[in-house]
Amino acid sequence: MTHYLRLLSLVVSAMLLAVKAVAGIKVSQTLPSAGKPEHCYTMMNANNYYCNATTSPTQTKDNYAQFAFYAASDKANTYYIYNVTASKWVSYDQADSYSAQTGFVKMTDNKVDAAVYKISELSTGAYEIQPYTTTGVAAIYLNWYKGVDKSNNPVDGNVTLGLWTDNGTKDKGSNWTLKEVGVLQKYTLFSDGMPSDATVIINGQSFTGLNAQGDQSINVEEDIQTSDITVKVGGGYLAKVTIDNANYQIDFKFIQYFTPTASIDAEKQYPYILKMPSAYIKKSGDNLVHTTSASDADRFVLIEAEQGKYYIYDRTAGCYIYYTNVANGSNQTTTANSNVKYTTDKATANTWQLMMLSEETVAIIPGSVENPTGNTPSFNFTGGIDNNAVLNLYNANDRNSAWQFIDPSKTPMPFATLMYALPGAQYIHKLPTKTGETVTSVDFGSISTLALHDDRVAIGNKYKYISGTAPAEEGEYEYTLNLTNETGDEIQSKVRLIVSSHLQSPTPMMAWLTWNWFARAISHDKMVEIAKGLEKYGLIEAGFNTIVLDDAWASPTNDKAALTYDPAKFPNGISGLETALKGINNKLKVGIYSDAGSMTCENYQPGSYGYEAAHLALFDSWGVDMLKYDYCNSQAGTKVSYTQMGNAVAKLNEERQAKGEIPFVFNICEWGKTKPWEWGAEAGGSSWRATSDAREDWIGNNSRPGVLGGVDEVRKLWMYAGVNRFNDLDMMCIGLHGLGGPSNNTAGHQSNGGQITGLTDAQARSQMSLWCMFASPLALTCDLRETPKGEANANVQMPNPLITDADIATLTNTEVLAINQDALGQQAEYMEALSTGTSNYSNTGYDVYVKDLTDGRMAVSVTNRGTTAVSVPDIQLTSIYLKADNKYTCRDIWANTESEIENTLSPGTLQPCETKVYVLTDKATVTSLAGVTTSLASKGSTRYDISGRKVAEDYKGLSIKDGQKTLK
What we know:
Blueprint: E1 41-45, E2 50-51, E3 57-58, E4 67-71, E5 78-83, E6 88-91, E7 106-108, E8 117-121, E9 127-131, E10 141-143, E11 162-164, E12 176-180, E13 185-192, E14 199-202, E15 205-207, E16 216-220, E17 229-232, E18 237-244, E19 249-256, E20 273-276, E21 279-284, E22 287-291, E23 300-306, E24 309-314, E25 319-323, E26 340-343, E27 352-356, E28 362-366, E29 377-380, E30 392-395, E31 404-406, E32 418-421, E33 426-431, E34 438-443, E35 450-453, E36 464-469, E37 475-484, E38 490-499, E39 510-513, H1 515-518, H2 524-536, H3 539-542, E40 546-548, H4 573-584, E41 589-595, H5 612-621, E42 624-630, H6 638-658, E43 665-668, H7 676-679, E44 687-689, H8 707-714, E45 726-728, H9 761-773, E46 778-780, H10 805-811, H11 814-820, E47 829-830, E48 846-852, E49 858-864, E50 870-872, E51 875-876, E52 887-892, E53 897-902, E54 904-905, E55 908-910, E56 915-922, H12 930-937, E57 943-945, E58 958-961, E59 964-967
Parallel strand pairs: 13-19, 32-38, 39-40, 39-46, 40-41, 41-42, 42-43, 43-44, 44-45
Antiparallel strand pairs: 1-12, 2-3, 4-5, 5-6, 5-8, 6-7, 8-9, 10-11, 13-16, 14-15, 14-17, 18-19, 20-21, 20-31, 21-22, 23-24, 24-25, 25-26, 27-28, 29-30, 33-36, 34-37, 35-36, 37-38, 47-48, 48-49, 49-56, 50-55, 51-54, 52-53, 52-56, 57-58, 58-59
């Protein structure tokens, strides 16, 4: 196998000068005429194309050419390159200057005719390669000029490498990874939520229980290809496999397309309608035909016969769908002449399998096919619905072979339809609709305190919204949205509004979690020391009042009935820990971790699936007040698994409310894989992870999101957030300083622990700002002890203290915390039209967000994504839903300044990775604090902000003392 080139001091023969090699390149000493070079490499650019024997591009493993590097004698960091596969030296025609061109590289038999190349290492560990002119190194780089295509640089052709003017930092084609052949390399395996019955097979080696921490790996000698991997999985799942041969990682993303039904007679049925791009399936008479109406489509259940093979049963028509011939059909208008038929006899029926086409669509393929490809026959209205073709078979790669399984019970609305409110509290419900749909009116039923508004339909994200105050009486209410679509059809959608003073989490939870610092190494004494640190630094007073024990708090076993705490770690039990924490500060609470599967993500302790009520009762008996619930080793679909625990939590909270106890908080953690923002509230959660595990990185990627990577994945989900229903961006990495454990497994570091650069102070403030703007739960995970110690990251020297004054100032800023804890519960809207950083994971541009706050106030943030300063143009207040020609008090949170503005907000210049946050209050508006004043008046002579948080007497902004509001 291959690996990145490492530094080697080269001692050449006495005939040659000693030349220092580029850091990473192992030069060979044995000339080809004398034997095989000691070190051979493949060359791959950042577009994942390798050089073949002619140095033209290839992605076929058998065609990868091997190259050896020999130090040139008269220039530093320069090499002769020998094409081992072609038995040729790599040369070019030297000239005074070079232009961008194809076919620049030449091949020669003799070293004396070979050319010298300068090779420079990039910060990523990759390389760029430059030729020399007659006078010196050329400012031009080896690259397949004009890209890889049929006319310029055909794949597996004979057009040699060319030249391009952009270096390896600017252009992926000039960015080369050199990998040594014949060396074992460790590939780390990752997965968020691998089902318990799934198996991954790589080159014959089997793996189960993969997790997000990369605890399992495989050593191989060659680049891993898709053909080297087999994934065996059922339960309606398929796996999206991402191979990163440059960084030696493989990520398995398991996607559940449907939940199987046990049998056609099962008490619990999971019916679906099957949709191709423009139609659905229904049985009409003797034929399986299409319909363009979802309401007219047949309902199907899928029954798993063996792992990954399913009977498809049309529950509406009462028949199985089967195939008679595994071959592409022709345009047929009767099912009698099709390769796809129906039967009421299960013995006649056969099974089907799935092939992933996208994260939303699959091809439905006969179960008898082994190793299906894009040419495999699959479900298709062969001949087209315009020709009234019946269901038949055709190539899986045809666009009309892409099918979705749509749950007809699922809300069709692109916004929340289960809402929450405290009695009499201010309320807003935003209603962005699908293209062509319009909210025409709302039937509020018995609710007289809400109204529909249309003043945002032509501004920003262009939607109507409902606002006012929630009913004063507790209970469950309902209102009906009336809509029309682009064809004039009328649509209705009902919204449930639960008004309660006993909501799990009316504002986002604030906590400290063990995982990123301690991983498995947790104990009673360590948690007590963390609690003392929370108290010392004012973090409990700031609101961080729950210590959550993540994975590995229990005795290791796989017996769900035997779940209990590890007495070696917690000799006084979890209840003893709770008592100790209360002794430090009575506001402290204990949270705990479990998993909706057979085992937890660390495969350390049993999960809670099927034991929800028993385990929750156990947690409750210990004084636990919160549950983080993962989804590794799953045994059922997400909605089923989380609803079972959600039902147990709801019952517990009924009991707690009757006893006057605080509510138990339920956090769903399936990493956003099945869109929990659409169903998490209905399943009983008050927050749900919407991203993979956050890492201490500025950008990151999908599987290891940094600050901006996580925000990018959630920034267009604002319409699903609200009171008691929050999108969770995961733990913040503020205070880790590159010394954490799992949080160090970033896109650029790829291992737990060690030492990385970590977040700068500006990046930490940006993380705090964005988490607060997004109404995300706020979770710390840094070491707050008097003497910090690497727990999940041993053998690294720690500063004392680890947390800095800048960290504390960021985490305890009352004004930014008030934005997070604002009683309206809104997630900031992404103002795409005002932003330039619109591509996910981009490291350039800036992003503008606006967040509605109570009493008509607006929070605005602007983030510089880049590492150089950026100038942001003025923002027109009318473009962020505010009024023209009105004067606004503009509070700059981080600058701690206040000004008066009218018509425009001027962010000016943002420093690298900086986020500016403003709160705008209309000076002409008479602030109504009806619900807030009443609740705070009973708190005595202390001053509070409008979120109910204690503030100083000189607090700048809107505050309340003795029931009287003050605006400074």
